[in-house]
Write a structure and sequence with these properties.
Layout: H1 9-14, E1 19-24, E2 35-40, H2 46-60, E3 63-69, H3 74-82, E4 90-94, H4 96-101, H5 120-124, E5 128-129, E6 132-133, E7 136-148, H6 149-156, H7 172-184, H8 186-189, E8 193-195, H9 214-224, H10 237-249, H11 263-271, E9 275-281, H12 285-288, E10 298-301, E11 313-325, H13 331-344, H14 348-357, H15 376-386, E12 390-393, H16 400-415, H17 420-442
Parallel strand pairs: 2-3, 2-4, 8-9, 11-12
Antiparallel strand pairs: 1-3, 4-11, 5-6, 7-9, 7-10, 7-11
Helix pairs in contact: 16-17
C-alpha cells in the first residue's frame, strides 16, 4: 500500500483531464509484430512506464502505448476502454474488488513463461480461480514496526534498560517492556514518547485497519487452514487490543485527541527523532529520509502482539499491484504483451527502472539483490525472509466500509465513549456483512485454498 502524501504537481497536471496517453514507437513500430496497450493506474510512475515503452519499441519494433487513469477515474476509464475494439492488452489490478470487476477479461497465465518466473510469494498473491492464475504481482511491499536504532542503542546504554540491544526484541513481552521503559524515561532520552501516535484521522487509520488488522486475520486463517472465509471469530483480537493499548498509552498524544492526528503528523514524530517506534510500511521511507533519522538507523520489527508462533514470523508482505492480460486481445497482441512483460523482468536496463527508478521490490526470481530498491526499510524487511522467518501474508479484506467502521469504533474506544466490544463487532460482524454485500455486487469472493505454512 503506497501512501503518497506528497503529490507530484507535474504528474497531477498531466492527468487533470482524466488520463495521459503516451504513444511510443512512432515510425519504428511494426504492426506485424503485434501491439501492446497498457492501462496503468500508478500516476507516480507514468514517466518510467513511458521510458520502458519507448525502449522496447526501439529494441523490438513492437508498438507500446501506455495510458494512465487519474486517481479516482481508473475504473471509469477502464470500463470505457475495455469496450472498444482496440482495448488494452494489459492492465493494472489493485485489490480483489478490481479483479472481480474485470474477471471476465483476464487471461489465465499459470502456464506462461513469465508466470513461472515469479517467486513463491508472487505466485501466492496471484488471483486464482479453479487452479488458474490470472495476475502477475509486480510490486512487493512490507509493513511492521519501524524503529530508530540510534534511540534504542542510546536506551540500551542506560542503567534502567531492560534489554542489551535491539536484537533482544523478539516477542511482544519484550517489546512491551521496552516501550513502557522508554516511555517512563522519555525525558532522560530526549523523546516525546515510545510509539508514534496511533493516529485515527482518515489519512492514517489504514495502519490499524488494513494493516494491523490483517495480523490477527493471518493467524486465524492459519488455525482454519484456509486462505479465505466469509465469516471469522476474531480469535486474536485480544492480542490486537494489547498492541493498540500499548501504542495508545505510550505515545506523545492524549488518547482523546488521536482522531485529529494525520498521517503527516505521526510520520513527523518518527522522522524528527521524537519517538522510538512507528508501525508502518516501507513506503514511509520517502517521508522519513532527509530528516533526523539516518538511513543506517532504520530498522523494522514484525507486528509482535503476543500471538503464539509469531516469533517465527517476519513483517507482513503486501502485493496489491499486479499486471493482467486481456484474454480478448488477438493472439498476436497477447504474445506481444507477454513478451513485453518478460522483457521488463529480464532485461537489466528495464529491471533497473522498475526497481531503482520506480522503487519497486519486484517479486520475480530475476530480481537479485542487485535489483532491489534503495530503501533501508525494504532491506530490513527482506532480511527476515533471508533469516528463515515466515512472511505474514496480507489476505484480502472486504472493502473500505469495513475499515471505516473499525476506525470509527477505535476512535470511540480511545476517547472512552465506546467499548472494545464495538471494535470487535465492527471487525467480526462487519466482515461477514461486507463480504455478503460484495458477493452480491461483484458476483464473487476470493477462492479459498489450504493455508500454506511454508
Amino acid at each position: 500500500m503506497n501512501r503518497n502524501v506528497t503529490r507530484i504537481v507535474a504528474v497531477a497536471a498531466s492527468l487533470a483531464m482524466g488520463f495521459s496517453l503516451a504513444g511510443c514507437g512512432g515510425t519504428s513500430a511494426d504492426s506485424d509484430k503485434g501491439h501492446v496497450y497498457f492501462m496503468n493506474n500508478k500516476a507516480e510512475v507514468v514517466d518510467q512506464y513511458k521510458e520502458l515503452a519507448s525502449m522496447y519499441t526501439k529494441k523490438t519494433g513492437v508498438k507500446v502505448d501506455v495510458q494512465t487513469g487519474a486517481a479516482g477515474t481508473y475504473d471509469a476509464t477502464m470500463t470505457s476502454e475495455l469496450a472498444k475494439s482496440n482495448a488494452p492488452t494489459m492492465f493494472n489490478v489493485s485489490g480483489f474488488d478490481q479483479f472481480a470487476k474485470y474477471q471476465k477479461y483476464v487471461e489465465p497465465l499459470q502456464d506462461t513463461e513469465v508466470f513461472k518466473m515469479l517467486n513463491d510469494e508472487g505466485k501466492a498473491y496471484s488471483y486464482t480461480i479453479d487452479g488458474k492464475s490470472y495476475t502477475l504481482p509486480y510490486a512487493a511491499e512490507w509493513y511492521g514496526i519501524i524503529y530508530n536504532k540510534k534511540i534504542i542503542k542510546d536506551y540500551c546504554a542506560k542503567d534502567y534498560a531492560v534489554i542489551k540491544s535491539a536484537d533482544d526484541i523478539k516477542d511482544y513481552k519484550t517489546l512491551k517492556a521496552v516501550a513502557q521503559s522508554v516511555q517512563k524515561h522519555k525525558d532522560d532520552l530526549g523523546l516525546e514518547g515510545a510509539f508514534a501516535t496511533p493516529g485515527l484521522d482518515s489519512s492514517d487509520s489504514y495502519r490499524f485497519t488494513a494493516h494491523m488488522g490483517r495480523i490477527p486475520l493471518y493467524y486465524e486463517y492459519k488455525d482454519m487452514n484456509t486462505t479465505f472465509s466469509k465469516t471469522i471469530k476474531g480469535t486474536y483480537l485480544a492480542q490486537y487490543k494489547d498492541l493498540f493499548d500499548l501504542e495508545l498509552k505510550n505515545s506523545p498524544t492524549e488518547s482523546g485527541l488521536i482522531s485529529s492526528k494525520t498521517y503527516d503528523d505521526v510520520t513527523s514524530e518518527f522522522a524528527l527523532g521524537k519517538v522510538a517506534f512507528y508501525p508502518n510500511g516501507v513506503w514511509a521511507y520517502s517521508q522519513i529520509k532527509n530528516n533526523e533519522v539516518a538511513d543506517d538507523d532504520l530498522g523494522m520489527l514484525p507486528y509482535y502482539m503476543g500471538i503464539k508462533g509469531e516469533e517465527n514470523s517476519g513483517p507482513a508482505g503486501v502485493y496489491d499491484a499486479s499486471w493482467a492480460v486481456n484474454k480478448n486481445a488477438s493472439e498476436k497482441d497477447k504474445k506481444a504483451t507477454l513478451d513485453f512483460i518478460k522483457w521488463m523482468v529480464t532485461d537489466d536496463s528495464a529491471k533497473k527502472i522498475l526497481s531503482k527508478d520506480m522503487g519497486f521490490s519486484v517479486p520475480f526470481t530475476t530480481f537479485t539483490d542487485k535489483f532491489q530498491p534503495n530503501n533501508p526499510l525494504t532491506a530490513a524487511a527482506r532480511a527476515y525472509t533471508d533469516a528463515g522467518k515466515t512472511e505474514v501474508r496480507s489476505f484480502t479484506i472486504p472493502d473500505q466500509q469495513w475499515q471505516d467502521d473499525i476506525a470509527a469504533a477505535l476512535v470511540e474506544y480511545a476517547q472512552g465513549t465506546g467499548t472494545w466490544d464495538k471494535v470487535k463487532s465492527a471487525f467480526v460482524d462487519g466482515w461477514s456483512t461486507e463480504w455478503a454485500n460484495n458477493e452480491e455486487s461483484l458476483g464473487s469472493v476470493p477462492e479459498a485454498q489450504k493455508f500454506d505454512t511454508k
